[in-house]
């Protein structure tokens, strides 16, 4: 599939600029809080073609392409969608992205491709993310019914172990399999997907979107081994002893950050990842030992300001709650999470308390969480990232009633695998040191990518790292 240079298209750019913007359609808040179904209403074919026709096809390099971490050829995809060539548009996306169906839904498009659209200067950008999801869904339906979009290449005889079935590991596995290598994906969870499956709520990324993609990978010959934690159940050395020629590590960051304040271990205080897994997962997909009789509190407080906090808030309002409140130690201007998600959370009934710092979780007579003691903050000087520091105001203590608290304040890598792998160099906090272009680590034959290397980041950047590492692994196997 060749790209279509914008400067050679015979189009009326001025006319396109003044085409009406119809926006996205959402289910009403009163309806969507009653279930976990997708919030955004999908495009039909006519709506998709019209939206794509708003693209003015900037001369190369288009800003949207430069802003996309995997550099999708978005203008050419828009041209194909505009002319009803939906399968061809998907094939174009698949040249640079393993999972347009995921990225089209969960990427922060307003900060990436969509946010860079030149139409944003005086109007509304082309809804590139939603169009990507549209063609991915369209093509997936075609693949399931006809099997005509994917093919398996001849086998090379080389074996690669991929550790971690999240965006990075799946992206790496997909590219390696397309080269003909035999790929086995090991994961600690019962079902593949990692963050996609266990960390993102169904109303943002439906499980019925994930399942066909796992089937697609299996159709390429990829084998999945669940409930296996590399570093504990097996080591990287064990994988090499079993005949694997290379190993890719894409285990993400699954250790929830702690506040380290009194009462943090009380019943009713949950870590963000634990809460999302319990509230969003099919009981058959829960990890061994995780309780299945999860009960939501009546007054839920979510601590944090990122996307995980928004996901926890919006999950809580869909359950049997009376009040759902987010508390954050800075103001909304400093919040790192998506503005769109906060708007949706407010529409759905969540409330926010800013400049609020928890200092103690308080137990009731039954020994469970009953309240949270907080301090009021003010903003001080900027920190090293440019955000103003929260400064507690002495004597401003106050109490918030809560029978459930969810801590969504960040994640750290699990160092078990790193420490069990001789010769693998780690950073101070446990991230794996790897070449940013190839994923090569200090251990020959071992590659790494995604959040395990960078710390928490985007789904698309993790997937891109896995794809880049796959290219380097293929070169390594050929040279070896």
Q: Sketch the major β-sheet.
A: 5 strands, parallel
Tell me, what is the CATH class of the largest domain?
Answer: Alpha Beta
Radius of gyration: 23 Å
Number of domains: 3
How many helices in DSSP terms? 19
Summing up helix and strand content along with how strands pair, one would put the structural category as alpha/beta
Q: What name is given to the CATH topology of the largest domain?
A: FAD/NAD(P)-binding domain
Taking pLDDT < 50 over at least 5 consecutive residues as the criterion, the unreliable ranges are none
- The CATH homology group name of the largest domain: FAD/NAD(P)-binding domain
Strand order, biggest sheet? 3-2-1-4-16
Q: Rough shape?
A: globular
**What portion of the residues fall into strands of 2 or more residues?**
15-25%
């Amino acid at each position: 599939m060749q790209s279509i240079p914008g400067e050679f298209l015979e189009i009326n750019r001025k006319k396109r600029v003044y085409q009406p913007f119809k926006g996205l359609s959402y289910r009403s808040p009163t309806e969507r809080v009653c279930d976990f179904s997708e919030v955004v209403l999908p495009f039909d074919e006519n709506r998709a073609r019209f939206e794509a026709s708003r693209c003015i096809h900037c001369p190369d390099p288009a800003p949207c392409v430069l802003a996309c971490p995997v550099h999708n050829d978005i203008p050419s995809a828009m041209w194909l969608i505009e002319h009803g060539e939906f399968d061809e548009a998907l094939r174009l996306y698949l040249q640079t992205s393993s999972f347009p169906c995921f990225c089209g839904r969960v990427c922060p498009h307003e900060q990436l491709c969509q946010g860079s659209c030149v139409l944003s200067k005086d109007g509304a950008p082309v809804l590139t993310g939603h169009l990507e999801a549209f063609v991915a869904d369209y093509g997936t339906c075609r693949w399931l019914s006809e099997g005509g979009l994917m093919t398996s290449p001849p086998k090379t005889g080389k074996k690669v172990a991929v550790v971690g079935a999240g965006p990075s590991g799946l992206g790496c596995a997909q590219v390696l399999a397309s080269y003909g290598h035999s790929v086995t994906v090991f994961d600690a969870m019962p079902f593949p997907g990692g963050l996609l499956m266990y960390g993102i709520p169904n109303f943002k990324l439906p499980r019925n979107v994930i399942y066909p993609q796992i089937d697609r990978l299996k159709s390429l010959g990829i084998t999945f081994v669940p409930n296996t934690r590399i570093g504990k159940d097996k080591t990287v050395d064990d994988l090499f002893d079993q005949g694997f020629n290379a190993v890719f590590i894409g285990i993400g960051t699954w250790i929830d950050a702690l506040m380290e304040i009194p009462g943090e271990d009380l019943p009713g205080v949950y870590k963000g990842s634990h809460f999302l897994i319990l509230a969003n997962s099919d009981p058959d997909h829960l990890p061994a030992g995780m309780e299945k009789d999860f009960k939501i509190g009546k007054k839920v407080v979510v601590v944090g300001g990122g996307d995980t906090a928004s996901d926890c808030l919006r999950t809580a309002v869909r359950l049997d709650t009376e009040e759902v409140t987010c508390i954050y130690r800075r103001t909304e201007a400093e919040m790192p999470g998506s503005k769109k998600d906060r708007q949706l959370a407010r529409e759905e009934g969540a409330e926010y308390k800013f400049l609020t710092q928890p200092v103690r979780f308080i137990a009731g007579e039954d020994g469970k969480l009953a309240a949270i003691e907080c301090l009021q903050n003010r903003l001080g000087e900027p920190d090293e990232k440019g955000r103003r520091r929260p400064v507690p105001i002495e004597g401003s203590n106050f109490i918030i009633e809560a029978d459930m608290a969810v801590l969504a304040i960040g994640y750290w890598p699990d160092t078990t695998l790193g420490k069990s792998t001789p010769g693998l160099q780690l950073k101070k906090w446990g991230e794996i040191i790897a070449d940013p272009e190839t994923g090569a680590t200090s251990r020959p034959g071992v590659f790494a990518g995604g959040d395990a290397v960078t710390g928490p980041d985007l789904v698309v950047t993790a997937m891109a790292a896995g794809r880049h590492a796959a290219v380097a692994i293929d070169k390594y196997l050929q040279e070896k």
